[in-house]
Amino acid sequence: MNKQEKARLKEIKQISQQLVSGNAKEILKALEIIPEKGDEQHIPLLLDILTVSTDEQVKTKVLELLFNIKVSAIKKYVIQYLKQAQTEENKQQLLSVIWQAGLDVSEHLDIIIDTLISGNYLTAIEAFTVLEECMNHIENKELIENSIKRLKRAIVDDPQSDKIEMLSGIIHSLNEKIAG
Predict the structure, then answer these.
(1) What is the Cα Rg of the chain in Å?
(2) Which of 34, 76, 116, 131 could pair with 38 in a Cys bridge, judged by C-beta atoms 3.0 to 4.6 Å apart?
């Protein structure tokens, strides 16, 4: 390993240490240099901060960074965190990252549908937006058919839901997708 590579690894490690420090000032310092000197391995740390931090300034800055990260690996991390999200706020933030960053999550239609069905109204709006954005990229017919069945079941299970219109809209769009 040459001198330049060692220096880069040291930089990455220092940023990582600042991100996990728990100190808002240190985290904010790291967030300032990530756009220029960050690394893919910082993405899970950013998502950890987003989902556990109570500091609104830190969360806002993390969201800004995540909206603008142009690394393909971000998608797998965001989907992983969405599947594990414990709060509606976290789900909403992660869905927001998906659509603000323009991530194509069409191959994860089932996860977005689950989030739409199980989430509260605000989470459902975010999931609906993501689904609208990725609708043109969905190609797996079996995934589409399964999603339609699950959405119809959700309507039958809770006909008084405040999300009926959204669920019906997605069913309509998916049916159009199948019809071609």
Answers:
(1) 19
(2) 34
Q: Is the pLDDT of residue 68 over 80?
A: yes
Q: Which amino acid is at 142?
A: E
Dist. CA 6–CA 164, nearest whole Å? 56
Q: Which two tokens stand for residue 57?
A: 């300034």
Q: Is 40 helix (H, G, I), strand (E, B) or coil?
A: coil
Of 121, 96, 95, which is closest to residue 108 (Cα–Cα)? 95
In percent, the amount of the chain with pLDDT more than 70 equals 100
- Residue 35 contacts residue 68 (beta carbons within 8 Å): yes
Q: What is the pLDDT of residues 44-65, one digit of tens each?
A: 999 999 999 999 999 999 999 9
Cα 23 to Cα 100: distance, rounded to the nearest angstrom: 27
Tokens representing 128 are: 């609906």
| All structural domains of the chain with their residue ranges | 1-71, 84-180
- For the record, the structure tokens of 17 come out as 């240490």
Cα 19 to Cα 7, 128, 136, distances in angstroms: 18, 32, 37
Mean pLDDT of the chain: 95
